[in-house]
Amino acid sequence: MIDSKNSYRQIMKATSLFGGVQVFKILISIVRSKFIALWIGPAGYGIATLFTTTLGLISGMTDFGLSKSAVKDISFNYNSENTENVSRTIQILKKLVWFSACFGALIMIVASPWLSEFAFESKAYTFSFIWIAIAVLFKQLSEGRLAILQGLRKLKKLAKANLYGNLFGLVFTLPLYYFYRIDAIVPAIIISSFIAFIFTFYYSKDTETEKVKLLNKEAFSEGKPMIYLGVMLSVSSMIGLLVAYLIQIFISQDGGVAQVGLYNAGFVILNSYVGLVFNAMGTDYFPRLSAISNKIEQIRKTVFEQAYIAILLITPIVVLFILAAPLLIVLLYSKEFSPIVSMVNWGILGMVFKAVSFAMGYIIIAKGDSKIFIKTAIGFNSLLLVGNIVGYYHGGLEGLGISFLIYYIIHYIGIRIITKYRYNFYFEKGFYSIFGICIFLCGVAFLLTYIENVYLKYITLSIVALISFVFSYIQLDKKMDIKEVIGKFFKRKK
């Protein structure tokens, strides 16, 4: 019982720790999005979205997943307390990242005419894409440095690098948007990436404990396992970026760039703000699951605990977003972005299903089952692409939200079947009753949004929100004794 309690507490501790870093970035992102939306409008926001999405796509295609795989290698050597191996691994990463960064920038420059034609149906933005190649370079260099900090568990430095990089990027780019409006988009992207690199370089410059001489040939030879693992881990992300890009292109051609801006705003709310829980959990969850990848009994226990915490954290967040969506969207962006309320309300229901499929899906990666991993990545992302296109074509932004919900339900069912028959995974008794209650609470909140009487609608929604918070607290308290955790915290403070 004590071990189980500690296990739940460890999950919550890790979620809070890594979530804090994400919260800083999101708060700064909210401010940035708010002012940019006001100064350049949905159309300008759509153009900026196409640029940043292309930047992410090219970077994801050329970074070989080094920022993901290096964390595992650095952390492993760091735990073994072999300072020479740690320094050597860091040197290998640095050399490989410089190569991938230059390669990514070159690809962006060479492909700029086609990227402009593909994104805007015109070559007028060719030189803009050429300039953005600079941002590709600094983005990959920054991610390599952050991987070093994460692998060495320098969490305070990691938090500071992220916080200050984003904060000063905001401070230096907002005046550009104010004075130059749409013309500031490309310079702002470049300046933001450069400032982020400056801070990640500063906080990671003293990470090597020993000086190691390493030839480029040796770096590539010894770095092959790192590259192989990184490519496997980044496949899903890369395909996801490509799908998001294609969806934006379709929306741009069918509804215009303003619709792209609206779609991206809704997508950010679903995947960045609400999805914060998943991003925070994944940082600690993946290495824990990988360590027991050959022990199915422990896998069942670990996945159960992770999914249990995830659904109880996400349920009150979903209900709260449904309650406050009209106000939150205006605060985050502007009144011009109000059309995405229906998209968010439909799509956010899928987050409850995503919480469970998220926990189960990591089993495939932890097992190193690359064939199934790639097949599921291609299959599910193809489904998302088709579903979003059909949803938008027939229902506009609301249709997109419905397609997101359907996708997450199918994704949950698919992952559930795969993990059951391939790895003999199943949840312990009691999980589905809690899962069902969480779905019920979110569904009731969604249905209440259709009440015409404004006062009755928000009173009943507030009651459901309160019930969801109380329910989650009670269930979490049963597993980890929250009162005891709070008591110990204050004792340490005294």
Supply the key terms:
mainly alpha; 2 domains; globular
Would you mind describing this structure in some detail?
The protein is an all-alpha fold. The protein folds into two domains: 20-234, no CATH class; 274-494, no CATH class. Helix content is 87%, strand content 0%. It has 16 helices and no strands. It has helices at residues 2-62, 66-79, 83-120, 126-151, 155-180, 185-204, 216-222, 224-255, 257-273, 276-291, 296-332, 341-366, 370-423, 431-448, 454-480, 482-493. It is globular and about 65 Å long. The two termini are 28 Å apart. The mean pLDDT is 84.
Tell me briefly what this model is.
The chain is mostly helical and 494 residues long.
End-to-end separation: 28 Å
Averaged pLDDT: 84
- Rg from alpha-carbon coordinates: 23 Å
Order of helices and strands: HHHHHHHHHHHHHHHH
- Total discrete domains: 2
Report the major sheet: none
* Strands, count: 0
Beta fraction of the residues?
A: under 5%
